[in-house]
Amino acid sequence: MYELKKKDRLCKNREYQLVYRHGKSYVARSVVLYIMKRSPQQPIRSGFVTGKKVGCAVERNYCRRLMKEVYRLHRSELISGYDLVLIGRSRMKYGTYADAEKTIMKLFKQAGLLKKA
Asked: Which terms in the GO cellular component ontology are assigned (predicted)?
């Protein structure tokens, strides 16, 4: 249930490029969210990226783990039929889980990805 299986991830470079090129972006200080609409019957797929400017490999992995954990715990609240890419910025490496959750959930709400209550 909480696993991020291969069918739920963006795996190939061209899939990421498609989302960057044809998707819409939402920006916060520590995270950038790109979304691209697909068929509503298809499950939501996600990708997590951090650039070299974030820091060393340990810091980049920490940022990706934070983003993945927020996504994993809130995946059931998201509408299906989208590809999304979360890009961690250098400010995220100084944050906690609570900061990451607040920022990412704000971006999900701004993008209209949250299901109606």
From this structure: ribonuclease P complex
Structural domains of the chain, ranges and CATH numbers in brackets: 24-111 (3.30.230.10)
The encoded tokens of residue 28 equal 């916060």
Query: Amino acid letter at 113?
Result: L
Count of CB atoms situated within 10 Å of the CB of 66: 26
Long-range contacts at 10-19 (CB < 8 A, ≥ 24 apart): 10/45, 10/46, 10/47, 10/83, 10/85, 15/45, 15/47, 15/83, 16/47, 16/49, 16/85, 18/83, 19/47, 19/83, 19/84, 19/85
Kindly give the residue spans of alpha helices, DSSP state H, lying in the chain: 13-22, 57-74, 97-111
